[in-house]
């Protein structure tokens, strides 16, 4: 592993050579592609759960099986705070590059385990146990990936283009989800429904494990960030230093809460919502999700670049206001829509609103913390918040449906966005008050 850019802790900082635009873009690309593979592996679970739910659980009605898979989806989120903590510590001590490579190893193993696991009819209760273990590994990986990649992209970017470059974290995050859906669409065309239920759902997990090898190769060529190589040896433990920034920690929690819940509602859960509530076919729900996600992905650098001009705070406030006002009307109307285009336009409108959060949330968090705890400060509170609100989104939505009060979920999402709006209104604009320049 190439560690030529990392200094031993406690050594004198050597002025780095001037980084060219080409080398900067190459490192950002390598980090982003690895991020894409990570999120592809993570989202394949949600995209194919409609098919493999029957393989890992005893026979029952569709909603009950989806509740089981959604519960395990949520269990994977329980490991994300641990991943954010461990990988954040590692990234702040050993380097962003090393931590990013370690996260890919974990994701690769988790995907391979799901691809090879026997079903419930073969090993009984052992099947869901293996599924839980694999998701725990993937949760550990993704928990560490977010904070470290957000830190890496923000530190690698120039001050004037930081919003634009850091937005590629969500470009690759969404593209990972989009590729998962593309694989699903292709398999739906070349395999019968019976084949997908029987064994076809294993293919995307095997693809994810193989793609991780490519990600590892690309990440070996990444440069370490200048912020990390120039930092001095910490005088106290990282956790003790982190506790000296309670305001920043609570800001991360508050600004993440509504945004992550809205994101998971209109992306991972929406495919099931269209099938289980609206009554559309799996094929139609998949193509609608793919089309809206593609346009959503294209919006990220546009809005990220806009934040470099007008600031981060106005864009976050726009998301908060629009999300609070329109979540209930959009979901209520979507419930009654039967046409492909009607569902497409409603979901797209929701995702345009959510872009005000997704495009810049990574850079906002990175700009809050000093170098010595940046990966930890971004990763740990974010992972905790996503575990509580994002990881439980599908389960809570399905629970409201199971008790005949599905509209209760719409108001729950609205309330969380409203809380985040209060944070956006009271926080400083990190573009003008960035800790990345003041370290």
Overview of the structural elements:
The protein is mostly helical. The protein has one domain: Up-down Bundle (Growth Hormone, Chain: A). It is built from 21 helices and no strands. α1 runs parallel beside α3. It starts with 20 loop residues before the first helix and ends with a helix.
Write the layout of secondary structure elements.
Layout (H helix, E strand, L loop, with lengths): L20 H36 L5 H33 L1 H21 L3 H4 L2 H31 L5 H5 L1 H23 L2 H8 L1 H19 L5 H5 L7 H5 L3 H21 L3 H9 L3 H29 L1 H25 L3 H19 L2 H6 L7 H17 L2 H10 L4 H20 L8 H4 L1
Number of β-strand runs: 0
Please, how many domains?
1
Classify the secondary structure makeup into a structural class.
mainly alpha
Beta-strand residue percentage:
under 5%
Report the uncertain regions: 1-16
Shape: globular
CATH architecture: Up-down Bundle
Q: Radius of gyration in whole Å, from Cα?
A: 21 Å
The name CATH uses for the topology is Growth Hormone, Chain: A
CATH class: Mainly Alpha
Order of helices and strands: HHHHHHHHHHHHHHHHHHHHH
The CATH homologous superfamily corresponds to MFS general substrate transporter like domains
Task: Please state the oligomeric state of the protein chains shown.
Answer: single chain
Distance separating the two termini: 28 Å
Count up the helices. Answer: 21
> Percent helix among the residues?
over 70%
* Largest sheet composition: none
The average pLDDT value, as a whole number, equals: 86
């Amino acid at each position: 592993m190439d560690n030529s850019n990392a200094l031993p802790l406690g050594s004198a900082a050597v002025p780095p050579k001037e980084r060219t635009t080409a080398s900067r873009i190459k490192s950002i690309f390598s980090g982003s592609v690895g991020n894409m593979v990570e999120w592809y592996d993570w989202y394949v679970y949600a995209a194919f759960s409609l098919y493999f739910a029957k393989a890992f659980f005893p026979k029952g009605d569709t909603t009950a099986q989806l509740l089981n898979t959604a519960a395990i989806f949520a269990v994977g989120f329980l490991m994300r705070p641990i991943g954010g903590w461990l990988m954040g510590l590692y990234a702040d001590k050993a380097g962003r590059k090393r931590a990013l490579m370690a996260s890919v190893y974990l994701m690769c193993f988790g995907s391979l385990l799901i691809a090879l696991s026997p079903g419930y009819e073969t090993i009984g209760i052992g099947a869901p146990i293996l599924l839980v273990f694999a998701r725990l590994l993937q949760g550990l990986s993704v928990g560490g990936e977010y904070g470290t990649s957000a830190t890496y992209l923000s530190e690698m970017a120039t001050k004037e283009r930081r919003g634009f470059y850091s937005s590629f974290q969500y470009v690759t995050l969404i593209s990972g989800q989009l590729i998962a859906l593309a694989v699903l669409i292709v398999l739906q065309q070349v395999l019968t429904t019976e084949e997908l239920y029987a064994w076809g759902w294993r293919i995307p997990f095997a693809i994810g494990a193989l793609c991780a090898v490519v990600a590892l190769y690309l990440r070996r060529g990444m440069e370490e960030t200048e912020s990390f190589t120039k930092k001095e040896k910490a005088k106290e433990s990282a956790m003790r230093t982190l506790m000296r920034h309670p305001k920043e920690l609570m800001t991360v929690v508050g600004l993440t809460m509504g945004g992550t819940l809205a994101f998971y509602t209109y992306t991972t859960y929406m495919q099931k919502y269209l099938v289980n509530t609206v009554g559309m076919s799996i094929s139609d729900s998949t193509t609608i999700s793919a089309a809206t996600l593609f346009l959503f992905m294209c919006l990220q650098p546009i809005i990220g670049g806009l934040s470099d001009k007008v600031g981060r705070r106005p864009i976050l406030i726009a998301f908060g206001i629009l999300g609070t006002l329109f979540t209930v009307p959009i979901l209520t109307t979507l419930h009654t829509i039967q046409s492909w285009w009607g569902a497409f336009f409603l979901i797209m409108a929701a995702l345009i609103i959510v872009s005000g959060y997704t495009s810049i949330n990574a850079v906002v968090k990175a700009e809050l913390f000093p170098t010595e705890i940046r990966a930890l400060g971004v990763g740990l509170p974010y992972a905790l918040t996503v575990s509580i609100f994002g990881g439980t989104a599908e389960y809570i939505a399905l629970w409201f449906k199971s008790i005949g009060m599905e509209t209760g979920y719409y108001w729950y999402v609205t309330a969380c966005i409203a809380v985040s709006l209060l944070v956006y209104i009271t926080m400083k604009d990190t573009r003008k008050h960035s800790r990345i320049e003041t370290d």
